[in-house]
Amino acid sequence: MKPYSQAYFITGLRWLIGALALITVLHPGVTRAEIRLPHVFGSHMVLQQEKPIVFWGWAEPGENVTVQLGEITQSTQANERGEWKLTLPAMKAAGPLALTISGSSTVTLDDVMIGEVWLCSGQSNMEMGIGMVNNATNEIANANHPGLRLLMVENHWDPLPQTDFIGTWKICSPETVAEGGWGGFSAAAYFFGRELNEKLGVTVGLIDADWGGTHIESWTPPEGFAAVPALKDEYEKVQLGDPRTALHHEHLAQTLDQFEQWDAAARQALKTDTLVPPVPNYPDDLLAPHHLQQATALFNGMIHPLVPFGMRGVIWYQGEANLGDGMRYAERMKALVGGWRTLWNEGDFPFYFVQIAPFNYGGNAEREAEIWEAQSVAANTIPNTGMAVINDVGNLQNIHPKDKQAVGHRLALLALAKTYGQKDLVCSGPTFQALKIEGDTLRVRFNNVGGGLRSRDGQPLTWFEIIDADVGGFVKADARIEGDSVILSAPGVKHPVAMRFAWSQLAEPNLMNAEGLPAGAFRAGEIPKRDWIDTNVPEAKEYELVYDLDLTKLGANSKYDVDNHSKITKSFDRIAYFLELQDATPNVRDIYVSMEAFTDDAGKIGLPVFGSGASFQQNVSNLNVYSNVKQIVTGTHLAGGNIEFWPNNYTPQNSAKVPNASNDIFDFGDQMALPADGYGCMQVHNHDARQTLFAINHWREGAKADVGIGNQPKDNPDWTFAGNAGNYRVMRLKVYVRCR
User: pTM above 0.70?
Assistant: First the structure.
């Protein structure tokens, strides 16, 4: 044995021992035969009042099991797998009670309370412990609440649904509330439960099951995906990766056939001294979840073990990890909520969630507004839900704002008003009701105004924007309160048709009701569709559209969305190009370039693909340039224009002697080369300004094509070898002519 082998053996043995210990906890059915309970049951726990109480566990197959809670007794028999389950009748709030489960052995739990149980889940802002919040020292010192019971589910994801977890019920005290997790027990959950305990006068049990940075789909069961048509693709992936499904069996059988065929071919190759064919790949689709962000992984490890433990409802704080989902997040919420409700089989239990706080994520400032909108749609379309808006207690520089007291309070307001029926309790900030155009103003009417609309800081209302029907984009609006409405107007906007509120990740608006609850982001009205050209290029009205090409469809056989070249029967004296680009940010880059006609054939002014006959390298005169890209030199009648249009390969050699061009890098003075059906180049330059105005190269490569406006910041100024087209979500080229 080599010297290091013994160390590897010992390390492996320790790993095996640890794994077996974990299996003993998470798979109790494999341990010796005695009465066993999952960890969701324990001394100091809370059982949900006014609902049948379900107990389950493990014993010897066929063993009789008796459960006694207080004076109530029920018996059942373990099945052939040693699993047992029984249900006691609903009880009113009570306790402390003793719980005894007996058979061949006996388990006794004490200090069991009948009260209200809530599951608290999500990502880091739910996980964030009480030790991380404002005034943490005092909050912990005062957390002596025997009427509040805490259960923290240890973080664990799994490929398959689990039957147990690691965790213990504890009485809330300064010591227990600060233990474990990320700075202790969930602060948002604690403040929520504390208020319920105070207002309801019954014991409240909180189950803390959350994990920072996680996606909503990881918490979602297969049943949730199955019920949402918009997530059919995700449901099929879940089915493929689940070894219990027919779809998995079918595809696995096909894969095994391929391996068997390979095995036969390989054995034949061994006999004949010929090459063995490549081994087939095992399809990734057939793999069960193999990291925590994959669909169902966290549900399997942290939520499935809780089913069907009785509870009143759920509070949820998540969404940051799904920032780019837009309206699809509303569908994901339907899957999550519907899936959990299906498995618990308790009807549409309450599900209250937090609209994520404003934060400077960088990039596209509207992405978070789109998630806010999706969360609002979820709250308005999923039965028995509610949303707590917290855009007034966030922190633009900290994705984990510390005012979790307000978060817990607003969640508690929703529960007290909507679940527990407390009257005359305002639980929501102002929500959009209707939009009405009144001349040059917009009237926005609100629901949930409570004691009236207010400005939180006494200053004019912020983050309202409106847009004119005819010109311009969204502009800041003057906003004034009039009863249950806000009246919007703006200088220069004569025909307002649409508005939006708090439509930015940086928005911390000041509109609230008299009860201090803020309004969340929304938009209303019909946003007019206008081209940048119409607003910014005065000469555009003189030109006719010849080609329109969605560059996101680039490839070996790119097809124009509009092709009018055969309809251009008149001669033309000028040609114009418009390129629009938008990446993941909200910033749209536009450039319009027109020039004296360099050909009289409209069939040769589009993308110079092989077969078009287009091949031009020449100066162009009277360049007119309009752009919103700051680096671009704009103006009319500019000298120094030149084009490089060809389907060929090319080299950086400046054989054409273009002024200011280099012989060493690809720029505005390159040389065509063979083959003629090669890399491909469509570039317009201002060599006097040493600028590439725009470039579209290597189009046959689709998402790996080179596309850019202005000089590429590094490497080749004309974007050769950039391979960046896949970075854009919007790419559009339009070609125009001015007919005589």
Answer: yes
CB atoms within 10 A of CB 247: 17
Report the C-alpha gap between 377 and 715 in whole angstroms: 46
* CA–CA dist 256, 134 (Å, integer): 58
Q: What is the pLDDT of residues 619-671, one digit of tens each?
A: 999 999 999 998 999 999 999 999 999 999 999 999 999 999 999 999 999 99
Residues whose CB is less than 8 angstroms from the CB of residue 579 and which lie 6 or more positions away in sequence, other chains included: 590, 591, 694, 696, 709, 731, 732, 733, 734
Domain spans of the chain?
431-525, 532-739
| Residue 478 β-bridge partners | 489
Sequence-ordered alpha helix ranges (H) in 514-604:
532-536
Q: Report pLDDT digits (tens) over 235-248.
A: 999 999 999 999 99
Q: How far is CA 154 from CA 22, 165, 245, in A?
A: 12, 7, 28
pLDDT (tens digit per residue) in 581-628: 988 766 789 999 999 999 999 999 999 999 999 999 999 999 999 999
> Which residue in the block uniquely carries the two structure tokens 């974007």?
719
Whether 460 contacts 400, CB under 8 Å: no
- Is the confidence at residue 19, as pLDDT, over 50? no
Other Cβ atoms less than 10 A from the Cβ of 477: the count is 26
CA atoms in the 13 A half-sphere facing the CB of 156? 22
- Is-contact 54 121, C-beta < 8 A? no
> Phi first, then psi: what are they for 115, rounded to 5°?
-165, -135
Let me know: does 495 contact 471? Beta carbons within 8 Å.
no
| Tokens, residue 588 | 């749209």
The answer to whether residues 352 and 313 touch, using CB atoms and an 8 Å cutoff, is yes
